[in-house]
Specification:
Length: 119
């Protein structure tokens, strides 16, 4: 006598959940070229960017966050968890987090003009 077991599935995160404006902001970077086909890494980056924005930090500003804003980020559990997710997903995607160019892309991905475009 066979008993049928219920079949359960979990939803996989899809790239469609990533806002178009986020993709437009990073699509010119070397980092994006490495993770364009890695929806989990894109989603993790997008989530952290949205969280920072929700916390009142303008990531498009040329002025760096204040010491107080940095402290708020560093002590925010959601932010810490998000950054850990970004690091995990970037490593899984094969991104070299010690590469200076990649780190620069991560820190400045919101700039809308391509590298070398000084106009």
């Amino acid at each position: 006598m066979h008993h049928l077991r219920p079949f359960a599935t979990t939803h996989r995160r899809q790239a469609a959940e990533i806002p178009d404006d986020f993709i437009n902001q990073i699509k010119h970077t070397d980092l994006f070229k490495q993770i364009a086909d890695k929806p989990e890494a894109l989603k993790a980056l997008s989530d952290v960017a949205m969280l920072v924005k929700e916390l009142g930090i303008d990531i498009n500003s040329t002025t760096p966050p204040s010491n107080m804003q940095m402290f708020r980020l560093a002590s925010n559990r959601k932010f810490i968890k998000g950054v850990k997710a970004v690091v995990t997903e970037l490593r899984k995607a094969g991104v070299d987090l010690h590469n200076e160019d990649i780190l620069e892309d991560i820190m400045s991905y919101t700039k809308s003009k391509p590298k070398g475009d000084d106009s």
